[in-house]
Structures are given as C-alpha cells and as structure tokens.
Specification:
Distance between the termini: 31 Å
Number of helices: 2
Number of domains: 1
Strand order of the largest sheet: 4-5-3-2-9
Order of helices and strands: EEEHEEEEEHE
Helix content: 10-25%
Number of strands: 9
Radius of gyration: 17 Å
Largest sheet: 5 strands, mixed
Shape: globular
Length: 163
Amino acid sequence: MKENYVILTKQTLTDFPFQQSLKPIVPVEPDLLLEMSFSPKLFIIGDIAEKVEKLVIHGVEWLDARVDCSPSQPSDDQIKVYEDYRMPYIHQTYKLTNQEKQFGKLNWIDAENTEFDFSKLECTPLEERLIFKLEEDYGLVFIHQSVIDLLKQHVNDVWVRDV
C-alpha cells in the first residue's frame, strides 16, 4: 500500500512529482503552488481544484485562498496577488508509526528512514484516505497516487515557496 502514496515534506521535496517550473518569459499564475513549511500546503488554481475536490471529499475542508507573490515591502505597482486558488485544509490523520505525538515540540519524522505501517489503513475506505497527515507528526502530507495522477493531467506551472 505504501507504493500508492507520495509523501510531501520539506525534507523530501526533491522526490515529489511536482517541481518548480522554469521561469516563464511571460508572467503566468501557477497551477500549483507548494508552500514548504513545517506543515506543507498546496494551493491549486480554481479550475483544477474543482476536479480535485470532486475526488477528495473526505478528510479535508477546501478553502478559498489568495497567493501573494509581492516582494517584501512592495510599492503599489509591485503588489501581485492571485485570488483564484483553493487549498485543502487537511484534518484527516492516521497513526502509522509507534511514535508519540510531541505537543509543543517540532517532531520531524525522518520520512525516508521511518517504517510506516500502512496495514493500519486496510479497513479504511480509499475515499477517506486520499489526502491525510500523520497523527504522530504534522510535517508530512500523504497524497494518494490517484490524486497525483489527476493533478499531472492538468498542472503545467508549479511554484515552490520555501517559508
């Protein structure tokens, strides 16, 4: 079952199927913005998000989102905000390791060297585990391959913002 999931985390971004697009000649809004922080976030442009929302119904709340690409302390003509994005607020969690959640501490799990017990998901219907986080650690986002495949069909421009 592990091979059916892609893990999005700051540490393993280079292995993620979507990477920073080359800078276009003509400025364009990205189809997908990955904001890489302790808890990575996905911002998906509206028309593509509609397709993903039809697939990913359980375990997330889809929120309207703005992407601010302005430089710090911009002048009026430098302000660049894109409005047409949706972001999955992921509230579905599963416990896949024997580690305990550490309240008030940054608990970075080494995703490459940690054994995840995906058998714990066998009784959970697929539609309830398409996108989820670990109960033990919120720095990892698990995305089912079916969601990745859907995004691959539509996403052309990807921005990665490391915050």
